[in-house]
Design a protein that fits this description.
Nucleotidyltransferase, domain 5; five-stranded mixed beta sheet; 43% helix; 19% strand; binds 5'-O-[(R)-(carboxyoxy)(hydroxy)phosphoryl]adenosine; binds zinc ion
Length: 333
């Protein structure tokens, strides 16, 4: 019955969680609002904010879980990938706790954790399953054969899906992160008004940079003819951009399901909060005879609960890290 304290600090959320025997008891997420005015995450500011947030966030996760540090059986942290200065804060904090309390340390891969977030709710996928992981930094189709056995079978060759949302939003003059705003405005838009191209990429890989360029030219041309083009058509433009990004994602997922014959299909990552993606996945699932799984929102965006659940399975497998372990900005699986 291990109790695990997990820390996630790979980007701009400081998150802490306590997990008892695979059940999440607390999941604290402290958002860093300092980046909003810069139009993107500023790495140096993220590290400083993690330093400020980490002690209260650990305290809060312990107190919600009604747990004290001496009864924690292992300390887990996100090792990679992420912003190196941000990762260092969580890694160093977890290492210090491990040293002070003489309890094992568990290093977790952030992308593996996004996939295993699907194992937190009671309604879990059986193995094998496919997971479409879509965030601000990554877009992957992962084939998960067992708790810690997974491989990436498709990924983006340029921008991530979240970046495609955020960069499109920026072109429309919307603040960062623009993904949720495109989602919001798209709800009242007409998806047939404008047509954006679908990239032709072989296999299961994705590409979003061509779409971004097409949107840029589309806006420039139309603004030349009508200075108020964006304001007058915002909802329809958002609906058409969103519809294209979602169709790019789901067409590849459908292809992956067909190739592998797997019918348990999950999504993960911040973009899985998108209403159109969730609805379209469920519809495609019904048509294709899939069982679909979408984690609750708090486990979709960056969170320590997913680090804790992954650490729990690593604990059971006896997969512990040495105190000399270092975080890494990039990491192969
Ligand atoms: O997983 P996440 O919280 O952080 C990363 O690891 O990147 O994902 C953040 C991304 C951002 O690009 C944000 O715009 C996007 O998820 N996002 C959305 C929505 N909510 C968050 N994109 C589209 N629709 C949404 N509702
Ligand atoms: Zn993430």
């Amino acid at each position: 019955m291990p109790t695990i304290l997990a820390i996630e600090s790979s980007c701009d959320e400081t998150s802490t969680a306590v997990c008892l025997d695979g059940k999440i008891l607390s999941n604290v997420i402290v958002n860093q609002t300092v980046h909003e005015k810069y139009g993107g995450v500023v790495p140096e500011l993220a590290s400083r904010a993690h330093l400020q947030n980490i002690v209260p966030a650990v305290d809060e996760a312990l107190s919600i879980a009604n747990c004290q540090l001496p009864i924690v059986d292992a300390f887990a942290f996100t090792q990679s990938p992420g912003l190196i200065g941000a990762l260092l804060v969580g890694a160093q904090f977890a290492k210090s706790l491990s040293l002070a309390f003489n309890k094992p340390l568990i290093a977790v891969h952030h992308m593996q954790a996004h996939v295993l977030a699907n194992l937190i709710p009671d309604n879990k996928p059986g193995f094998p399953f496919l997971c479409l992981t879509v965030s601000g930094g990554h877009t992957q189709i992962v084939l998960c054969e067992d708790f810690l056995q997974m491989k990436v079978i498709g990924q983006t060759i340029d921008d991530a899906a979240g970046e495609a949302f955020d960069k499109s939003a920026k072109l429309l003059g919307l603040p960062y992160p623009g993904g949720p705003l495109i989602d919001k405005y798209a709800q009242q838009g007409d998806t047939n008004k404008f047509k954006f191209p679908e990239p032709q990429i072989d296999g299961l890989d994705f590409s979003f940079s061509g779409l971004k360029t097409a949107i840029l030219y589309f806006i420039q041309e139309n603004k030349k003819k009508n200075g108020n083009f964006i304001e007058e058509n915002l909802h329809d433009i958002c609906a058409c951009i969103q519809q294209r990004i979602v169709s790019i994602l789901l067409n590849k997922l459908k292809k992956a399901a067909k190739q592998t014959g797997i019918k348990n299909i999950c999504i993960a990552g911040g973009v899985s909060a998108n209403k159109d993606l969730r609805k379209s996945l469920e519809e495609m699932g019904k048509q294709s005879g899939w069982k679909t799984f979408i984690p609750p929102f708090e486990y979709c965006t960056d969170n320590a609960a997913m680090i804790a659940i992954t650490a729990y399975h690593k604990y059971l497998a006896g997969d512990f890290a040495d105190l000399s372990v270092s975080p890494s900005a990039r990491a192969e699986w």
